[in-house]
Amino acid sequence: QVQLVESGGGLVQAGGSLRLSCAASVRTFRIYDMGWFRQFPGKEREFVAAIQWTGVGTSYSDSVKGRFTISRDNAKNTVYLQMNSLKPEDTAVYYCAANRDRGTVSRAAVEYDYWGQGTQVTVSS
Length: 125
Prior knowledge:
By secondary structure, the protein is mainly beta. About 0% of the residues lie in helices and about 45% in strands. It has strands at about 5, 10-15, 20-25, 35-40, 45-50, 60, 70-75, 80-85, 90-100, 115, 120-125. The strands form two sheets. Strands 2, 4, 5, 6, 9, 10 and 11 form a seven-stranded mixed β-sheet that branches. A four-stranded antiparallel β-sheet has the order 1-3-8-7, with no helix packed on it.
């Protein structure tokens, strides 16, 4: 059984920063690709960032590229999303996800197998 738990969300003013964390319950985390997605009210979940199981390959949506950084610490079974220069349009529930089919750094939510409960990020103008 795989459990992912996000933390680090909150309220921040535009231009500020937050660091999200996602802790995995199993050792096999280290061989999963990991991703961050976000969901706006009434809209589909959308891709934010992903990181290959080795931590080398990464992918970002155009909307966050240059502002957000995904990283992982396999020794701690944890994935991070550092969010800088936050904008009000970044306000959403952020989810981490694990993909057992490692190596692809997929941008598609349907390819991820395990999901966290989400953490709210609110950016005020």
